[in-house]
Amino acid sequence: MNPSPRPPRAGTSRRRAARTRSVVTALAVAPLLLLSACTTGTSDAADGPGRAGPADELRLGYFANVTHAPALVGVAGGQFEEALGETALTTQVFNAGPAAIEALNAGAIDATFIGPNPAINNFVKSNGEAVRIIAGSTSGGAQLVVRDGIDTAADLEGTTIASPQLGGTQDVALRAWLTENGLENDLQGGGDVAVTPTENAQTLTLFQNGDLDGGWLPEPWASRLVLDAGAHVLVDEKDLWDDGQFLTTHLIVRTDFLEQHPETVEALLRGEVAAIDWLDANPDEARTLVNGEIEKIAGKALPDAVLDRAFTNITFTTDPLAGTLETLLEDGVTAGTTTEADLDGIYDLSLLNKVLTEAGRPTVSAAGLGKE
Questions:
Q1: Which of 16, 59, 126, 145 suits 40 as a labelling partner, its CA being 20 to 30 A distant?
Q2: Does the domain spanning 142-244 belong to CATH 3.40.190.10?
């Protein structure tokens, strides 16, 4: 049987949206690069303070995951390019969030689709200066999938479980859940359960070879282990959250790029809204397009059954679900990768809400953690 949701803390439900304090990832590994931007085409440093008008180029990061479908569609379907107009779009694909953050800090990209925990870490490491969360993207689509013989949390003792990257969103979720279920783990891979950060494609191969016992993975990798490698679901992360909604992917931008090129950022957001609208209106075509992009990037298309299962587990939304952020951060404390900090200012949803208002749609909340 599946284990029950995480036990309450101090008499409160684990997944309450409102918390009285904020915490922040502080990885016990090499610090992220906090380098000055060396941009190509945008000339941010040369422009000096203040607005510089639309950028000549927008460099965008994302992952080849179904949880990044709005990015995949926006690029391949032309929604970003159309919205950006004269601004050229270039892209870079990453395996997980910490690598994307390093590229952002090094000035190699201007914006990226990413999970919440690496973005939080970067915000705090830079004393609130480096990045802003400007929109949501995807809710849901992460599961702990395991081999036969593991049916309860207790059965995980002595196993090796993968996550996409140390300090990434699924890595934090896994470590927090293990700890809350009485299973010791540490950042060096020790404890009752050895957590092993592993690239997603390698996780599938290692699991098939018997070198891993499972993984806490985003889609489509959870579905690939289930359908291609015989794994089963031990924990569906949506079962740990009120209403089954939790943040998997949002959109962030370098603060200096946002300040100098708000017109370009607004155009990017218009493109994202258009991409999500198209995803929702054309589910069959969207799956084909997303699969085609994954094939281009990864070299192999997903089987239809994997794609169908993955899409069933996720919802696309520009709402960043800001009310869940403090709980995500509290998971980092439990996981041993976080410390307390003030996250005020991490959101700037003003341009998104402008786009939504002009389209006659409801605005979204920053939950007191930034501009609306």
A1: 126
A2: yes
